[in-house]
């Protein structure tokens, strides 16, 4: 439970700032200026409020009580909606409480990121005629803003668009990879964000360093990527594994079903029995893919139908499913040591190494397994239409396969009934 206390940090013989100390429990602690000040002789340490010895002090006390109530309401709302509580959030809410207008600096990278977040509902999607950013995209911008604020602490100064010289960009890149320990893909994505946001800022008249438009992003090479999939034989092992706990039996259903439907974890878990419809040719599942906002019809394969005929799996949280399917894979003896990245709770980063395969199974394995197992059996464009991939090159990179320049020619001959010699 959040608690707020007001304190002074100085006993100087002059008016000093009043701070509020917010405790969120479990070591989560913040200290923020309230914007009010008072002489220490007029402060009651016992009560944590100004002494009630004149009208000015009474007014400050009233303002502090108003702030305390407002902040606790904002914190409760934020926690209910999954919004991160940090210094920037608390400073902003403190200013909002008293309708203070904070002087903005449009030359700051963090300001431009917040501008995009604040206008997400009306922002035009690049390359499309639609407006409105997806929820996941907004979260990515929020994450990137925190990265920028952390980098400002590292360089001990504001990070401005005019600072984006080759030397500063290189420093940012090294900080992402070496100091923060981010993956190659995460660091490359952050640089892509920085370049994109710089273009937006320039359109708004902000002075941007010419080098900003030359920023290069990057991704892992195919050789460096560790793609974890489940083969048909391994899926059979999972199907036949002896499980006693209902939670694991339910998780196995989701895992096997996911490998037949080819959807992202968050989309898979939103599927309901009412989304299944029958047509003369078979059954389809209507899926609204969150990323890309696509509405797709997913065929119910014979194997998927067998699973569904045993009863639709119970709803489960994504994180719980990720935990349970590792136990399911372990029970199925998927113990082969393979290279991959495993989340480290201490560093909060994925660490590369050799681990038992069951430790590397996630809900994302479902979509990759579907794509890999049906590749070459079904035309690539058909699989892409189900998984939601847009570019064939991206799809092939996703499953770690090189482009087969003969594929379309072979399919053409197959459909017209000509044998390939």
From TrEMBL:
The family note in this entry says: Belongs to the 'phage' integrase family.
Q: What is this protein called?
A: Integrase
Which keywords does UniProt give here?
DNA recombination, DNA-binding
List the molecular function annotations (GO) for this entry: DNA binding
UniProt GO BP = DNA integration; DNA recombination
Q: Tell me if DNA-binding is a UniProt keyword of this record.
A: yes
Q: Record's Pfam families?
A: Phage_int_SAM_5, Phage_integrase
What SUPFAM superfamilies does the record tag this protein with? DNA breaking-rejoining enzymes
Family matches, as InterPro entries: DNA_brk_join_enz (IPR011010), Integrase-like_cat_sf (IPR013762), Integrase_catalytic (IPR002104), Integrase_recombinase_N (IPR010998), SAM-like_dom (IPR025269), Tyrosine_recombinase_XerCD (IPR050090)
Please report the stretch or stretches of sequence annotated as the Tyr recombinase domain: 225-413
